[in-house]
Amino acid sequence: MDEEDSVGANKCPVCGSDPRTHPGLRFKINTKCYHRICEGCVDRHFSSGKAECPVGGCHVSLWKREWRTQTFEDLKIEREVEIRRRVTKILDRREEEFETKRDYDDFLELREELVMNLVFRTDVAATNRKLKEYAQANGIKTDPTDGPEPGAKAPRRKDMAPDAADQSGLIKGLKRIVIPEAKAPYDPFMGMPRTREYYEVKESYITRVRGKPAEAMLAGGYDFAQYMDESLLRAFAGLGVFIEDEMSARDNTAIPVPGPT
Amino acid sequence: MKFFIDDLPVLFPYPRIYPEQYAYMCDLKRTLDAGGHCVLEMPSGTGKTVSLLSLIVAYQQHYPEHRKLIYCSRTMSEIEKALAELKALMKYRSDQLGHVEDFRGLGLTSRKNLCLHPSVKREKSGAVVDARCRALTAGFVKEKKERGEDVDVCIYHDNLDLLEPHNLVPPGVFTLDGLLRYGEDHKQCPYFSARRMMSFCNVIIYSYHYLLDPKIAERVSKELSKDCIVVFDEAHNIDNVCIESLSIDLTEDSLRKATRGANNLERKIEEMKASDEEKLQNEYQKLVEGLREADEARAEDAFMSNPTLPDDLLKEAVPGNIRRAEHFVAFLKRFIEYLKTRMKVLYVIQETPPSFLSHLKELTFIERKPLRFCAERLTSLVRTLELTNIEDYQPLQEVATFATLIATYETGFLLILEPFETEQATVPNPILHFACLDASIAIKPVFERFSSVIITSGTISPLEMYPKMLNFNTVLQESYPMSLTRRSFLPMIVTRGSDQQSITSGFQSRSDPGVVRNYGALLFEFAKLTPDGIVVFFPSYLYMEMIISMWQGMGILDQIWTYKLILVETPDAQETSLALETYRTACENGKGAILLCVARGKVSEGIDFDHHFGRTVLCMGAPFQYTESRILKARLEFLRENYRIKEQDFLSFDAMRHAAQCLGRVLRGKDDYGIMVLADRRFQKKRNQLPRWIAEEIHEGQTGLSTDAAVGMAKKFLRSIAQPLVPGQKAPDGSTKGKDSWDLKELENFQREQRSNRGEGDFGRQDAYAHDYLHRETNAGSTLLHNGSRGDVNTADEFDEDIADEEFLIAERMQIELVG
């Protein structure tokens, strides 16, 4: 990449055209081999499907859609950002997820370390393996084209506690995952029994009266079954109330609950 | 003379004192007693510096706290002048008291002015001197030397280590020259002597930047104690200084250099890794621990806070992803690349910091937090790598500061990208302005840290504008009128030419030949009648060039030529100083000369035209700023939204302070006299924004003049000033009022009178209307004048309607070239 920067800075390595001779010349790059060729060459070589990168000595095969315009002037940075995008997608943790700030910083450094490994092509295999393991352990989907050895199964670590936030053991200092207790659905009656003790609205009551419900019965927008229920409740609800009992019960227990009576 | 203000004995090194000086001292003392900030305006040439120094020194010596004085001025010559003044004062004090007080006063200026090293001092550029000095004097250089390595050192600097650290120079006051001489005699470095002695000084005199520029303040001024008295002299431009100190401009070139710097850093890190891994590891360990050290120091209140290093930052450790040196360099490179991509855009962009940050994160995964640590991290890295050629990393430093600032402040800053230099240009030359809009950010640490900050100048009207803009509270704001035995200057507002056409430098009519001819005629008439020098101020270089070439075409210059020599200021500093020198020679020779200069140029700010060097000053056009500038527009909007200062108010305030500054150039003392002409119809309504001492002298008859009327008045004035002064111009009742200076007895009389009028001491002054040292008639006159002028504005309103409209449009499109 260095010679590209200095010598033929603005020349297409395939057709040799130059913005000076071809005004309006635009270049495209891909994120696999980071070769930079002009738009015309991309069209020519890739219009009929997958093909090899036309730059001499490069045998990476590419689709046309993998060519895009470059964001940064420096291709090294372009590549770094691309790698960073991939790594960040996998190692995506926020500060709140860590026990201490120090742990978070360590995590940041680790991530940086991995990115740099990939950028400078040191330990690429090991780094990729780590990422892979982590991704699989945490159920993160990675781009299938990224992995060098797709299909490699990451064994689940036996020594990890089952509630550790990171099952692969790559990131340390994460807070334990606390599974919140399942909450019961909201109960508007605050635990009051809703079974009818003294009566039951039977189908026969309804069918018996069906056909001629008085208009007044349906005036409140009830359907007849509801009306029936309501009337029965009003008739019998008071039967279960024993004021004496409730008062004595309240006097005995309600001292700590001085709520409104 | 020695007198008392309340219980404070003041020794004043002159036998006579001006009444305004006395009033100024009283108010100063009140401020110091109350412990707060103040804004004081004192006419130029009435001995502001000496009264300030003599009161504060008296205050220091009399009260047991011995509060330190930090006196900040603008230019080298002003610093030198203040030091000389202080030296004379201390000599007088020791003569009077009979013993030499234990007192130190030192001035500090750049290394370039204070260097003694035989080869380094020959360097022309200040940056080179700094860099070479650092290479010879840095701490690790000395360590190397001790280890027996062969390195160059500065003998002057190393000699300092042989002396007692608190006694590098003997007590007393040293002017900059004196310090140089002392350094030469004793073979010690004057710059470092001054810097290291700063905490032992009673008075420190240096430039604003040492206190306001965060980069410098961090190194030089942070150890100053809390109870220091801080004085900003000539502070009428202080808001601009504050803003400039936090604004950063990045160009493609500087980014290229920054990249180069980053690459160099990378290489250095590699080298160090190979040779001296341990050091990097140490640094790493320290960063893991956090910037706690600095935090502790700040907690103890030892240092002043720094706008580029906010407090909360110190409490945290450096984020993990920039902890390692190589990661940090990659981080910087990524940031610079991002900036480069932004530069490629071909249309103007204005962006707030949050929007910039979110885009940055999207593209490069740089988060806000590490960005905030950028400047600090770079400093630490540079220190670890023991880099000597720091000037190579200047652009990188700038980028890092930029990163820190943009990540720290959400408001008060704006990012403006201008891809083209001018509207017409087709070749892009992008500049990324990171403009600070809020002057209070830079000065905030100063107000927070020091209990008394005094802002003073000859022209700082309207006073209430400054506390608003800089966001502080004052205990006192005061403007002092000038006490004169007779009218020694004649301010006039000329609104029409001899042909009754109104004259203005407003945009619509500025190239109107009629206006230009009228300006020419005005200059010609004054060239005829003025003895010695004339100084003419234009709103901008562009306008000046245009008008001069038109005058040439009309033959006006040829007419003037027969009376005066004509000299012109240019943006180039050397040409200008040559022009000035010629101008002075011409004035000495009797014929006199005309100096054409620009209201925001160098001449208008730092150069005095006392006595025959300036008898007439002409302001041709109101010096409004170039309002099409995006930075100015953004700032105006900011001021409106945050400080409730209307755009128009600020623009006219800014124009008038520059006009006042120009006018003040010619009157440099009470024995001086001169004519001041404001030639623009827009001055008519703005005259109450002039400093009080000028505004009160503009009587009703001196406004709205035509050229011939002004010429007539000027002639009359010059004739009257030519008469000898009648002795004993005292008020008939024998009181001391109305005199322009007092001896001791008169001063005591005045004090007695004041006491008897208003009860005991200074508290009586609070209800004091105006300054009672003025002649009663003058006071009465001035109130009349105010009433009169108010009435006049009402009647003139309909006439001025088009002016108001025009002001609303602010059609001032001339580029203001700021002289750096």
UniProtKB/TrEMBL annotation, chain A:
Gene Ontology biological process terms from the UniProt entry: DNA repair; regulation of transcription by RNA polymerase II
Gene3D superfamilies xrefs: Zinc/RING finger domain, C3HC4 (zinc finger) (3.30.40.10)
Alphabetically ordered keywords of this record: Metal-binding, Zinc, Zinc-finger
InterPro entries in alphabetical order: MAT1_centre, Znf_RING, Znf_RING/FYVE/PHD, Znf_RING_CS
Region Disordered: start-end pairs: 136-165
Top-rank taxon, per record: Eukaryota
Identification of the protein by name: RING-type domain-containing protein
Native source organism of the sequence: Capronia epimyces CBS 606.96
From TrEMBL, chain B:
Domain Helicase ATP-binding: 7-283
EC number: 5.6.2.3
Chief subcellular location: nucleus
Segments forming a coiled coil: 248-300
Enzyme class, broadest EC rank: isomerase
Any GO CC annotation of this UniProt entry: transcription factor TFIIH core complex
Listed GO biological process terms: nucleotide-excision repair; positive regulation of mitotic recombination; transcription initiation at RNA polymerase II promoter
Superkingdom of origin organism: Eukaryota
Pfam families: DEAD_2 (PF06733), HBB (PF06777), Helicase_C_2 (PF13307)
Keyword Isomerase attributed: yes
Gene Ontology MF annotations: 4 iron, 4 sulfur cluster binding; 5'-3' DNA helicase activity; ATP binding; damaged DNA binding; hydrolase activity, acting on acid anhydrides, in phosphorus-containing anhydrides; metal ion binding
Entry's localization field: Nucleus
UniProtKB keywords: 4Fe-4S, ATP-binding, Coiled coil, DNA damage, DNA repair, DNA-binding, Helicase, Hydrolase, Iron, Iron-sulfur, Isomerase, Metal-binding, Nucleotide-binding, Nucleus, Transcription, Transcription regulation
Catalytic activities: ATP + H2O = ADP + phosphate + H(+)
Cofactor(s) this protein cannot do without: [4Fe-4S] cluster
Record flagged with keyword 4Fe-4S: yes
Family assignment from sequence similarity: Belongs to the helicase family. RAD3/XPD subfamily.
Protein name: DNA 5'-3' helicase
Organism (species): Capronia epimyces CBS 606.96
